[in-house]
Amino acid sequence: MVVGDATAVKLVIRHARTLEHEGQVDIAADDGIVSGVKADMSETGEYEIDAGGNLVLPTFVEPHVHLDKAFLAESMPEAGSMAEARRLVKDAKSNFTGEDVAARAQRCLESALLNGVTAVRTHVDIDGVTGLKSLRAMSGLKAKYKGLLELQVVAFPQEGIVKENGAGELLEKAMENGADLVGGLPEAELTEEDGRAHVDRAFEIASKYHTDIDVHCDVQPHTKFVEYYASGVIRRGYGRRATADHLIALAYYDDDHASKIVGMLRSAGMNVVTNPCTMMVSGSSDRPPKGRGITRVKELLGAGVNVSFGLDNVMDPYNPFGDFEPLRNGWLLSYGGQLNRAEDQRTVLRMATYNAARVLGLDGYGLAPGCRADINVLDAPSPRESLRRRTIPRYVIKAGRVLVENSVTVKKNF
Ligand SMILES: [Zn+2]
Predict the structure, then answer these.
(1) Full-model pTM
(2) If you measure from the C-alpha of residue 122 to the centroid of ligand 1, how many angstroms do you get, rounded to a whole number?
(3) What is the pLDDT of residues 26-76, one digit of tens each?
(4) Predicted local confidence at residue 1, as pLDDT
(5) Cα of 210 to ligand 1 centre, how many Å?
(6) C-alpha 220 to ligand 1 mean position (Å)
(7) What is the mean pLDDT of residues 214-225?
């Protein structure tokens, strides 16, 4: 791996396949911005890359991860269930320091960049135990990685809002101290009524601070908050500025009720994020047959809902593994969501790029002229091959400059 210098140059990528064009195209970037996309481009660049007929995509976007909890499993026991993971993490939080959180999160961001992820939305616990410690650590990283990676921080009330004294006020304090948007977890409350009050309070704070909202919703099969949350999104006109994560219970509803909910999500215009790797291992408390821990991905996509997928957790009590390789996560989603056809595989790549960028509300994202030249040159010629081989990008380009050149490629001829 080589990390390039910071000079923006006129860049031309030749013989690229994209998700948008038939055949191969050349892509030019000037001063950090895509300046042209066409076949057999005559202009030359100061820096040229031959993609060799491989896929070229806008850089990956990670829409849902908990960086404050990353690598906790290095120093604590594994959990056997979602409830146990929540207990273990709650205990661990009393030992968090700002330095410790920043160091663990930074390991994630370094890995993200090497894998071509240049925008990350992280949920960060805001509660009476950690206060604003983890948020401040993320603010430091946001400044440190400015220009390399966009870090969005969600103020996340993991321990509840209603049942925790002063939790709402602490969330407001987080918004005044650098959090970008408001999160939620209504099932953290003791009753369904309190869960609804939790959603209301999250909306109230988002509205007061004019931010987007991103709520963990129905992480477990028996919970039922999606209807209430989606109706709030519709009533308040949040549209694409609202995201619902998980929606695992939706997979368990009967088809008629599920179809009504999918229709509501579509009408609301909101985003959905599913988290296959973490939830496949910890999201189901079913007796056999075990659920897959993911929502009705195909139905949601089919209805026109913007669906993306995230990592959620990295080597902590919720997820024993976890890494910043979107192609690996997409490969797992393809299996779990039975996304088998060539068209589905294109969709999976769109979910990790365009759909995720829409969740984060990124401006100037994509490969069209005028977009920021944040580009991954992959080492596979098609969506199917990129997911099958799960190679890391050969080149990661940020604002028109080569940030990373990965020299090792694998599985090329198999
Ligand atoms: Zn989460």
Answers:
(1) 0.96
(2) 9
(3) 999 999 999 999 999 998 999 999 999 999 999 999 999 999 999 999 998
(4) 45
(5) 22
(6) 12
(7) 92
Whether the Cβ atoms of residue 55 and residue 383 lie closer than 8 Å to each other: yes
Q: How far is the CA of 42 from the centre of ligand 1 (A)?
A: 47
The fold adopted by the segment(s) 60-339 is TIM Barrel (3.20.20)
Q: What is the pLDDT of residue 413?
A: 57
255 CA to centre of ligand 1 in angstroms: 26
Instruction: Check if CATH label 2.30.40.10 holds for domain 2-58+366-405.
Output: yes
Q: 14 alpha carbon to ligand 1 midpoint, in Å?
A: 39
The protein residues having their C-beta less than 5 angstroms from ligand 1 (an ion) are: 312
Q: What angle do CA 224, 357, 378 make, to 5 degrees?
A: 120
Q: Where are the domains of the chain?
A: 2-58+366-405, 60-339
